[in-house]
Design goal:
Belongs to the short-chain dehydrogenases/reductases (SDR) family. This is Dehydrogenase/reductase SDR family member 7. The chain has about 325 residues and is α/β, with parallel strands linked by helices. The chain has 11 helices and 7 strands. Strands 3-2-1-4-5-6-7 form a 7-stranded parallel sheet, sandwiched between helices. α4 (about 60-75) packs across α9 (about 265-280), α7 (about 150-180) runs parallel beside α8 and α10 runs antiparallel to α11 (about 300-320). Mean pLDDT is about 90; it is low at about 330-335.
């Protein structure tokens, strides 16, 4: 009888645990490990204050918001992107909203495609601050076009920018971290780094490449336990990523500015990125529902993941052709007549 009672309690305990986790997942805007770290782990305020952080793609979107939140935490910043005037604007706001001084912020205009300039930029940063504690590989560009309509230059351009450019910066920063035997390399991947997404074949390929590269690099860095390799995989987030996305030709961007209000707030996404950094999470999934459930389906039930992605993907294409944001209707939304 005691054995039966113990087994019954064990089964009920397992069922209760499963129900609790299901409820957590339904209400979640990030993977459950990340949300646990946010609630019970180390805070960005306790771990990132005083760090020297280099942010690429710092002039807009997630990169810009990262600079603001890091500035409020008291981190010294290196701001990089192609547009110097925008970087100076971000720098001014960082000074306004924080206790940082001019000496705590360095603007380094940088084109990720110009890999010949990356070593000099890295040397400049190290000479100025003496160290790089965190590299945030955020710079890149998205895509909105069907493969059959898209020129090969788009695929070459996206790989050179999103993948080769990121690898190049990492190539120059990593030896410095190895010498110090510590550091963090945080790379903004995407839901498309894990899941195939229509209208983004080239973008998804570049993000898949980043996933493979940094997952492999993490293993290579096994002899340096204090060098952390962190991949961040956001879903749809409010930014100018669609507005700046390339189309059928690499030099052509999306002309229509679509409604972005249905997407995750940029400040919430960035806060979760910083929590991931503070707790050294190897990979973080950040997305509102129903996008978040796709991560879990592709990870644990890929047949279902394929089926739902196929259905949602066709709707995504229809939205794009209709001139509205591709992600403006949820994949679980009902068809309207």
């Amino acid at each position: 009888m005691e054995v039966f009672t113990c087994c019954t309690l064990l089964v009920l305990g397992c069922l209760l645990y499963a129900v609790v986790q299901l409820v957590r997942l339904v209400k979640a805007d990030a993977d459950l490990t990340l949300l646990w770290a946010e609630r019970f782990g180390s805070s960005p305020e306790s771990k990132l204050r005083g760090a020297v952080v280099w942010v690429t793609g710092a002039s807009s979107g997630i990169g810009e918001e990262l600079c603001y939140q890091l500035a409020k935490l008291g981190a010294s910043l290196i701001l990089s992107s192609r547009r110097k005037d925008e970087l100076l604007r971000v720098k001014r706001k960082c000074l306004e909203i924080s206790s940082l001084e001019e000496k705590d912020l360095l603007v380094v205009p940088l084109d990720l495609i110009d890999i010949g300039a990356h070593k000099a930029a890295t040397d400049m940063v190290i000479k100025y601050f003496g160290r790089i504690d965190i590299l945030v590989n955020n710079g890149g560009r998205s895509q909105r076009s069907l493969f059959v309509d898209t020129g090969l230059d788009v695929y070459q351009g996206l790989m050179n920018l999103n993948y080769i450019g990121t690898v190049s910066i990492t190539k120059h920063v990593l030896p410095h971290m190895i010498e110090r035997k510590r550091g963090k390399i945080i790379t903004l991947s995407s839901i498309t780094g894990l899941i195939g997404v229509p209208l983004s074949t080239g973008y998804a390929a570049s993000k898949h490449a980043l996933q493979g590269f940094f997952n492999s690099l993490r293993v290579e860095m096994g002899a340096y336990p204090d060098i952390e390799i962190i991949n961040i995989c956001p879903g749809p987030v409010k930014s100018k990523v669609v507005e700046n996305a390339c189309t059928e030709q690499y030099e052509t961007s999306v002309e229509t500015v679509t409604d972005q209000t249905h997407k995750m707030a940029t400040d919430r996404c960035v806060r979760l990125i910083l929590v991931s950094a503070a707790n050294n999470l190897k990979e973080a999934w950040i997305a509102d529902q129903p996008y978040l459930i796709l991560y879990y389906l592709w990870q644990y039930a890929p047949t279902w993941g394929w089926w739902i992605t196929q259905k949602g993907g066709q709707k995504r294409i229809q939205n794009f052709k209709s001139g509205i944001d591709a992600d403006s209707t949820l994949v679980f939304s009902k068809k309207t007549s």
